[in-house]
Amino acid sequence: MTSLHSPLPLAHGPAMKNRFMLAPLTNLQSHADGTLSDDEFRWLTMRAEGGFGLTMTCAAHVQAVGQGFPGQLGIFDDKHLPGIARLAEAINKTGSHSVVQLHHAGMRSPKELIGETPHCPSDNTEFGARAMSGDEVRRAFDAFVAGAKRAETAGFHGVELHGAHGYLIGQFLSAEVNQRDDEYGGPYENRVKLLKEIIDAVRAECGKDFSLGVRLSPERFGMDLMEIRRLAGELMVSGKLDYLDMSLWDAFKLPMDEAHQSRSLLGWFIDLPRGDCRLGAAGKLTTGPACQKALDDGLDFVVIGRSAILHHDFPEKLEADPNFMPSALPVPEAHLRQEGLGDAFVSYMKTWKGFVQESA
Asked: HEC string of the chain?
C-alpha cells in the first residue's frame, strides 16, 4: 500500500516530497493587469509551507484575450515576471515542486472583460464567440509556449497545460464545439493536434529539468469519455509528460455516459499504461481515507482543492492523523481569513452554496 506521504519522483525536475498536489484554484486575487498580489502570494505560499508536494498556481492566462475571470493571474507579458519570480522563489524554498498552470479561456472569456468578441475554434452562438483564424490559432500556440518559457525564467519547476473544463484547449478537443474544417478540426487526430504541438514545443523550448503536466476532464463541456481515455493513454506513454491531472468532480462516481458505467470514472484511467508519467486526479478527495482509497485504487497522487482551501496544512494534518476530518461546512469567514484567503477570495467562496456561514 502506497503511503500518501512517500516521495514521488518525476521524470523532470525535483521529486514531489509526498502525494499531495494543490489544485489550480480560481481565487480572483490578482491585480487587474494580471500581476501577482500580496493576497495571492500569501494564499499560495501558505499551502507550500503547509506541506503540499506540488504547489500549483491558479489558471494563468497566456493571452490578454484569453482571460477567463476578473483578478486572474497573467503570464502573457514580461510585466508579470517580477511577481511570479517572487512566488517561485518562496514556493521552492519550502521544498514543494512549483508549477504555473497555463490557461486560455477561449469562448469562455467574458466579452466585457476582454473588450472584444471571445475566440473559439469555430463560431459558437451559446457563448457569442467567433471562429479563430489560422493565424490566431498559431498566436495562441505561441502564447502557451511563451508562457512556459516565462515560468521557467521566473524559476518555476514546471507548467501544467489546462486542457479541461471547456477552456480553449478543451474546446479544440471537443467534436461538439470544434467545427473547424482545417488541420485542427474534424477527426480526433486533428482535434488533439494543438495540444500535442504545444507539448512538443514546450519540451523543445524549455530545459531538460522542467516538468510538464496536462489537465483533462473526461465529461461535460463536449467531452467524449472514450476519446479522453484514448488521449490520456497516448499522452502518458509519449515520454513527454511528467504527470496527467484528471479533473473528475467525483473520482469514484460512475460516468454520466450510461454505456460506460461498468466501472467508475476513475477506473477508465487507472488501467492505462503510463510509462514514466504519473497519474493523479481531483474529485471529492477531501479526507484522508478518500485520498488513501484513490492511491489504493491506482493513482500516483491526489489533487486537493476544497480541503486545501479549508486547511493550508492539509497534508501535515493527515500525516499527524490519517483520519483527520476537515472543518465542517459552512465555515466562518474568519476561518478562511486565518487560512490565508484575501477579501476577493472570501467573496468568491461566498458564491459556493453552503461553504461560508452567512452573517447574522
From this structure: CCCCCCCECCCCCCCECCCEEECCCCCCCCCCCCCCCHHHHHHHHHHHHCCCCEEEEEEEECCHHHCCCCCCCECCCHHHHHHHHHHHHHHHHCCCEEEEEEECCHHHCCHHHHCCCCEECCCECCCCEEECCHHHHHHHHHHHHHHHHHHHHHCCCEEEEECCCCCHHHHHHCCCCCCCCCCCCCCHHHHCHHHHHHHHHHHHHCCCCCEEEEEECCCCCCCCHHHHHHHHHHHHCCCCCCEEEEECCCCCCCCCCHHHCCCCCCHHHHCCCCCCCEEEEECCCCCHHHHHHHHHHCCCEEEECHHHHHCCCHHHHHHHCCCCCCCCCCECHHHHHHCCCCHHHHHHHCCCCCCECCCC
